[in-house]
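Feature request disguised as a bug report, sorry. It would help if multi-protein outputs had a clear separator. Right now it looks like this:
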Amino acid sequence: MNRRVLDDLLHELSRITDERELVMVGSQSIHAVTNDVPIEVVMSRECDLLLDESDSLTGVIDEGFGPDSPRAAETAVYVDTVSSTFPFLPAGWEQRLVPLAPDLPHIRCLEIHDLVLSKLVAGPLKDYELIAVLLDRKLADVGTVRDRIVAVPDLHMRAILAARLQIVLESAAR
């Protein structure tokens, strides 16, 4: 979704959340680092927010803004609430969150390199394509991505991330 549509969605959401701090973890986080977001972000219809399933706000957001909500049917954009156990989030991600915008200080986003690692774990082709675009546009730095991979304590996960990054790099080089 474009920035205007995202802002409209988040301002409407802020009214029911009483401007509670929310964390955006999906591709819409890229809006926090550039006004010229890749087409892959614009084409996405979802805004992923990190919320525990036990949080009472999750049900309210799912009902009013989720993929099956009347609002989503009307606007074709929706909020997808995701548990902190769903996306892969590297150690220290909380300290690296970035604000989306001055007028939405309570909306913070994954830092771009943490987003790349999360997308590498998710694994769909569309995520690899997005990562390639982020690296090509220099919105993400391959050295920083590699440093984050090396910092992953689980050796198996580290190997998977390194292999998937290599696939992205080799595909982009063709």
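(second protein starts here, but nothing in the output says so)
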Amino acid sequence: MKFDKIIHEPARLRIMMILSGVESADFNFLLSTLGLSKGNLSRHVEKLELAGYVKINKIFKGKIPNTSYQLTKKGTNALTQYWKNLDVIRRTGQI
């Protein structure tokens, strides 16, 4: 069984778990919830976007830029498969 290395990284897994429970989350929410630096969060989200797992939405609220993120269908499917793979390991003890 092969783990998705994009998701398996702890910070990215946490990002995906948060996004799986909401319609979308903005940068500041993720920043405060995860306790990552701005650069670290940006880099992890960029990797998730490149994999097609996260969609980035940039808008203006008045004159203030706002960046939000949402899990894509591909991201949802990949996260579901990730958990299925973990369940197999828990049941069988084999990787």
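Even a blank line would do. Unrelated, but nice: The longest strand covers residues 54-61.
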